[in-house]
Write a structure and sequence with these properties.
about 270 residues; alpha/beta; 5-stranded mixed β-sheet
Length: about 270
């Protein structure tokens, strides 16, 4: 296959350097969760609108796609709270190996990309390993591995999904290539998209973030930003799938952002 990223002089990963018990979060999903009883819970730093997930139909038939799933804490939390079926996509082998499959959780070893083929994944030196197809921020990237890249379209075709209830995205800067390669008709088949943009790691992403926001709002999504200065916790709700009242829009768009910010500020005092 064609390489998405040219080979670099990298030292390939010594997996024994990262013992599983040191970083696995799948068994401690409760620690990654805030506001679980509210209409707008936050899991692993991702806020979404919960009432549709509390319906009986979601518990039996709901579909969640977890891109950049690490060892699976986000999906494990969703399953325990709401049910549904979660597909976890993780590029870093050291994280992927920690994901335990069940009848409600399926794992896929891929890097989400703008085209399919072999991708070079750079692993940041961090207590909780994470990888990126670009070397972002002020991290050391002394090791790498190759992983099969897949587009969002290719992934949904692979799992035979025509509709997604909740798409969670945390793919370390690869989100922009993913959006560029994803057709409008696929995006409009998704009810909610909760995403961590990485403009806080590199200023070059500031304009691409605005481009994605403009595109999705043009497709009929409402955009909610829950972080103060950057776009680390952003939610897009498809207005054709989920009808929000004026109060719900105010609550998600203004009240939560500033009330949670105030709560964090007071907690530091």
């Amino acid at each position: 296959m064609t390489a998405l990223f040219p080979p670099k002089s990298a030292v390939y990963l010594d997996w024994y350097r990262f013992p599983a018990q040191k970083f696995s979060m799948a068994d401690n999903w409760q620690d990654q969760m805030n506001y679980s009883g509210s209409a707008w819970p936050e899991i692993c730093g991702h806020t979404f609108y919960a009432p549709p997930l509390r319906m009986d139909d979601f518990r039996e038939n709901g579909l969640v796609i977890d891109l950049g799933g690490s060892s699976g804490p986000f999906s494990n939390a969703v399953i325990n709270l709401f049910g549904g079926l979660c597909h976890v996509v993780e590029a870093a082998t050291v994280n992927f190996n920690q994901i335990e499959e069940t009848d409600r959780l399926k794992r896929h070893h891929h890097a989400i990309a703008g085209e399919e083929g072999t991708a070079q994944l750079w692993l940041a030196e961090n207590e909780v390993p994470w990888g990126s197809t670009e070397q972002l921020g002020q991290f050391n990237y002394s090791q790498s591995e190759e992983v099969e890249g897949i587009t969002l379209s290719g992934l949904l075709k692979k799992i035979d999904a025509a509709h997604v209830d909740l798409l969670k995205i945390d793919i370390e800067g690869a989100e922009f290539d993913m959006f560029r390669s994803t057709p409008d008709e696929l995006l409009t088949s998704i009810s909610q998209i909760t995403i961590e943009f990485h403009d806080f790691m590199d200023a070059k992403y500031i304009q691409p973030v605005q481009d994605v926001k403009r595109r999705l709002t043009g497709l009929g999504f409402t955009c909610f930003v829950f972080t103060q200065h950057y776009n680390g916790d952003v939610l897009f709700i498809n207005n054709a799938h989920l009808k929000l009242s004026l109060w719900q829009r105010f609550e998600g768009g203004i009240w939560l952002k500033y009330s949670r910010g105030l709560r964090r500020l007071l907690a530091r005092l």
